[in-house]
Amino acid sequence: MKNIFLIAAFALLVFAGSAQAQSYSTTSYSVGIPTGDMGDYISNVSFRGIAFDYRKLVKPNVGIGFSTSWNVFFEEKPYDTFTLDNRSLSGKQFRYANTVPILFAADYYFSPEERLNPYIGLGVGTIFNERYTDMGVFRFDQDSWNFAFQPQVGMFYELGTNAGVSLAVKYNYGLDAGEIDGAQSYLSINLGYVFMKR
User: Fold this and answer.
1) Domains in the chain, CATH or no CATH each
2) Which of 60, 76, 132, 189 is most deeply buried (CB count within 10 A of its CB)?
3) Structure confidence at residue 88 (pLDDT)
4) 160 vs 82: which has the higher pLDDT
């Protein structure tokens, strides 16, 4: 898990440092809202998340690059039954989930010359999901790499020549794969600082 985060952070630095044209580099605080199968496993909203986005402008209103984030979900269950393969245990549970999408992404900007610039975007790539359930002295681990999509809507507000703030809503959807049954999905709300290279 730590290696994945380091690789994503390194890729962000390499892309941001090598850009010759206009670009947006965004670091965001991310709030995650689990949906679907993930929501069945953990229903609590996650306030532990960080996101990185980089877009190189190939046209004034089109940016391409990558997107990654790390959201940590947690829920304490006073009493529940957990089933994995042919094992079922009931009792007090502590459930955890880590998600790390790594995606190629493109955005379309509606008002690139204005201070307030709304946009839509789509990311395609993979998402790493890890979940584990603690029950007394037992721990059940599961992980998967899923093919993933990430549609998003958002906006930039320019504060100055090279700085701005952003608000984005992303829907992360990973197809069924690996040890975790069912598609893994969650909604994230991201408030960020944007460095705008001119």
Assistant:
1) 2-197 (2.40.160.20)
2) 189
3) 77
4) 160
